[in-house]
Amino acid sequence: MVHRVAVIGAGISGLVATKCCLDEGLEPTCFERSEDIGGLWRFADNADCGRLSVYRSIISNTSKEMSCFSDFPFPEDFPSFLPHSLFLEYFRMYARHFQLLRHIRFKTTVISVRKRPDFATSGQWDVITETEGIQESHIFDAVMVCAGIFQKPHLPLASFPGIETRFRGQYFHSLEYRDAAAFQGKRVLVIGLGNTACDIAVDMSHVAAKVFLSARSSTWVFSRVANDGLPWDMLNTTRFNHFLEWLLPSAIMKRIKIWKMNSWFNHEIYGLASAKSSNFKFIINEALPICMLSGTIVLKSNVKEFTETSAIFEDGTTEENIDVVIFATGYNFSFSFLEESICNQLKSNHTLYKCVFPPQLERPTLAVIGLVQLTGSVMVGAEIQARWVTGVFAGAYKLPPSSKMMAEVSKKQLPVKRSLHVTLQQGSLRELSQLVFLATWWLL
Fold first, then answer.
1. N or C end of the chain, less CB within 10 A?
2. pTM reported for the whole predicted model
3. 312 close to 130: Cβ distance less than 8 angstroms
4. The dihedral of CA 32, 38, 41, 46: what is its sign?
């Protein structure tokens, strides 16, 4: 029977995991290596603070109406899209309201999490922590890993010849970016076309001499402001839209999405994406098209190589006098405190049962919370995961046998071929629904 639960991390996932443990009558102890809660959303002026932090100008991509924890709404006077200061204030209010701080040990780093010798029967874990140089050993009945997906910067320097050997300018990963003040009058190259890359490019465009945005893939751009001035996710993240995703063939859904995207501006004219794009990645940034239209941001192809002062791109063009290169190339996750046998299983969230439980364990007493990228808010997903996990720990829910979980994980890792043949094999319900929907559409 699970009683004592170790929660690793006091960010979004760690806070809601601690709260859900209390709801189920469990005894959580949350270990946070820094001196406060909030994780990424606790802004730090100094990039060398030893932890990841958001940049100064960041605004949430999901609205407060679609992001709050289910039992603790945002204050009514908060704006729909929040700066980091208000997000952190919300987390503080949440922690105070549910009295979570008494269960958190700050300035405590988890050194190792190992299965106990009798794990096959007890499911217990040996957890070693360190606080101000003093190590301590604990025994827990279960562990919830809430360290997040933004852990180690992915800096693929080997893919950019000359950046280390010839380029004389400055280069760094986007995790070191805090604000635009240091880039006054500089010519900056941002590598990447995700939310972070475009946010940083827009932020710097107000002070830099020129910002170049290098992309190797396409992307579609959403605005936070949708029809009638409502937040975009209130109109797009609905059960009806999800039903259409399930119902309609992928080719028709792609056409509908492209039509919606291009109703704002023609992405192909801007060089961002086209109907021929193989993927459907999108970002949230209403300022990017304006910056591109005004020339403060120039979209470039992937970098082929660097010289002493310039960048040569794969389309044959060259940009001279580059002062700074910022790599917005994402992150790798690594739970180095877990024993090697478990780390080898955590190559990605696709190796976890429902993106949460390592399926090979003899006892389901280890869970990973928040290791998932969602279209909507991570807060909502983390809470659903935490409620399910703590229910399993408390005995309210049961998981399938390990063999069945491993089989499902293996099945989801196989490439999915979306064809009429596969659709028919899945059963007649979807096919019948499609026919009824299309027939009704045609009659109307």
1. C
2. 0.89
3. no
4. negative
